[in-house]
Write a structure and sequence with these properties.
4-stranded antiparallel β-sheet, 362 residues, 3 helices, mainly beta
């Protein structure tokens, strides 16, 4: 074999080994040791990891007030904002309201409450999920009804990639979720969680979209699964150690003192970072973890309402504290608490729409 041939063979072997190594890393299940982290000291975030992209002060007008704030992507110039009743399209940076839609009711194209809203850029549709009446509703870019579907069992409609969607069922159902294609044909059913934990409470299950991928955390489970149309892949484990609530408590959860256990965990994944919020020992914990190696990057304990809520960022030389309300790709959407918003806008009054930041995770 010539020297050139040997070089080509050597390069091909290196590429193959690198590919196998990369696939091995991607298949590894990340462990987040929440139980051990609660005893560690508070830790500050590296400011180079988070960069403020822009600040938006949503305009306030009659009939355009938000009681809560959740976000979804639309395009480079606007963002979707919604609460339990209202859906708005807001100009990024300007805060001007480009669409204000409320369709509360029981008729066609109406909902009892907005649980989730996403924008379909291919069809220019708003896709709204309403759990109270088991509906998924599609509106065009002007807020006109396109179509709707009604589901039973008090489940949740969750859009996926390629026009597919998951129908996520409550804990006491036989399956955790079903996946359908864009023509409503059943692709598969999935059972991931344990159905043997006795409980008298109604639990909705957690289906998420992070970094353009779908994830599912079964009720009473600490394993987060990456969900594709074909299979469910263990992705991450929340290791609570001896601070995990015992299964037998759920039969009458209100009668137990949960202060010795990690409770009310919520989280977002943005880029390679996990943002986790939970309660333990009558304190709120805010933690940020680097998913590469499961390394703790930020930690804060809150024991009173006056404590700083979130991590600090700089906006025009002013320090404000934020925590994500939603994520998209490597962008955090963070609505400021009123006490933080007034630092940036001293003329801001009460009972007005929120100020939010978009922050890039580097």
């Amino acid at each position: 074999m010539s020297n050139t041939g040997r070089c080509i063979l050597w390069l091909a072997t290196c590429v193959l080994l690198l590919s196998c190594s990369q696939n091995s890393r991607n298949d590894e299940v990340v462990t987040i040791p929440l139980g051990a982290s609660v005893d560690k000291e508070n830790q500050q975030m590296d400011p180079a990891v988070l960069k403020v992209v822009d600040v938006t002060r949503i305009e306030s007008a009659e009939g355009c007030y938000l009681s809560r704030t959740y976000f979804f992507d639309i395009d480079d110039e606007s963002v979707g904002v919604y609460d339990g009743e209202r859906i708005m399209r807001v100009g990024v940076g300007q805060g001007n309201i480009l669409l204000n839609m409320s369709r509360v009711g029981r008729g066609p194209g109406e909902y009892l409450g907005v649980n989730d809203c996403r924008y379909d850029p291919d069809n220019k549709w708003y896709v709204v999920t309403s759990l109270l009446d088991g509906k998924a509703i599609w509106y065009d870019e002007n807020g006109r009804l396109v179509k709707e579907k009604t589901f039973g069992d008090r489940g949740a409609f969750c859009p996926m990639d390629g026009g597919r969607y998951a129908y996520v069922k409550p804990y006491n159902a036989d399956e955790d979720f079903e996946i359908y294609d864009s023509e409503d044909n059943l692709i598969r059913r999935s059972v991931l969680g344990s159905k043997g934990v006795p409980t008298q409470m109604f639990y909705l299950q957690s289906f998420h979209c992070f970094n353009g991928q779908s994830y599912f955390l079964p009720t009473f489970s600490d394993t987060l699964y990456h969900v594709t149309a074909e299979k469910d892949i263990p992705f991450l484990v929340f290791d609570k150690g001896n601070k995990k609530i015992p299964d037998e408590y759920y039969s009458n959860i209100s009668s137990y003192d949960l202060s010795d256990y990690i409770d009310a965990l919520s989280f977002y994944i943005c880029g390679d970072m996990l943002f986790a919020k939970f309660w333990y020992g009558k304190k709120m914990f805010l933690e940020i973890w680097n998913l590469t190696g499961g390394r703790l990057a930020f930690k804060s304990e809150l024991s009173s309402e006056s404590d700083n809520y979130g991590f600090p960022v700089q906006v025009n030389g002013v320090t404000v504290y934020v925590w994500p309300n939603d994520v998209s790709g490597n962008i955090l959407y963070c609505a400021l608490l009123p006490r933080e918003a007034v630092k940036l806008f001293p003329d801001r009054s009460e009972d007005v729409n929120p100020v939010f930041l978009r922050i890039r995770v580097n």
